[in-house]
Amino acid sequence: MISNLSGIYLDNQLFSRPTRNITNNQNEMKIVSEINETNPCNGLYIKTNGTTCGLKDIMIGRCYEYQYITNCTNLYELFESAIRYKPYCSMNLSTYENYFQHSFDGIQVIDKAMFWSGTYAVAHTYSNHGINYITLEDTLAAAMVSGLTWCGKDNDSEGFDYVSCPNNCEDNLWADDAFWGVASKTFAQKAAGEIYLVLNGSQSNDHASFRNNSYFAKYELPNLQRTGQYRVTKLNVLLLHSPDRKVVEKCGENSLITLETIVRNYQIEYICKDDPEELILIMCSNEWEARECQLARQVLRKEWDQKLFGKSNSNYHSVSFLFLFFLLLNYFTQKNSSDLF
What we know:
By secondary structure, this protein is an alpha/beta fold. The chain has helices at residues 6-9, 55-63, 72-83, 97-103, 120-127, 140-143, 178-190, 215-220, 254-265, 277-286, 291-309, 314-339; strands at residues 109-110, 114-117, 191-200, 232-240, 269-274.
């Protein structure tokens, strides 16, 4: 199992999930090109194509960062017992149930649960590690395995394959969703009150913002609580459009209509907003030179000069105004030319 959701969630570079590598100041990370041993780790933190070296120590160490968990060793043992000595392709959606039930026990995410699809970087910058909102990746169960790799191996003294883990299973498609599928399902079951969904309205190849094969559609949306004290009352869709990219869908169009119909049939209130201002700023922080972000630069510079100096820098803004004028002139000239064809 590779702790990565890139196969379904990610699309455009702006929204891509950064690769996280396990580093250690005392142990140099090395790429092992030739492995002849059953367990090449031998107490070292080296990188292999199999289970992450030091998996147990890393997971328990991360667990201790969460103060509400008192027995991190027990939680790791639930994880280990689910996979040790068991080949990766024998996994299914019940494999990790005990692990998730224990890690989410007694927890409800009220008015702060944030889901995402195709918008990893922006959604997690906005959530701010659980301070503003809480994503699946902010929870203990997911944080313990972030960026790690693992797979079991039968007839082996270690019970783990440290040499090579498969990327997928042709004969058992459920194995690929065994961990993150149940993680998504459990997180959705713990969401209550108002929830948030960050979608990508500028998918490449004109892909829909809401897709039936996404984790949200398969595991999260169907498992939202619709009754009881901890039911979901409202879904807020935040639909983003990448700077300098084509707008594929807007709120109230195509797949967003399908999503709204499903949500309202669940008796959950539905609201969709195109490009909320706070998310525009996050997108422009990554695409500062994009055409749509140029105006934001001018406004921000003016306001910061006012804050620092009590007035705008006239020399700077005389140049900025000319730049902005020619920028707008060029934009509308191109737009009008394109409208002729």
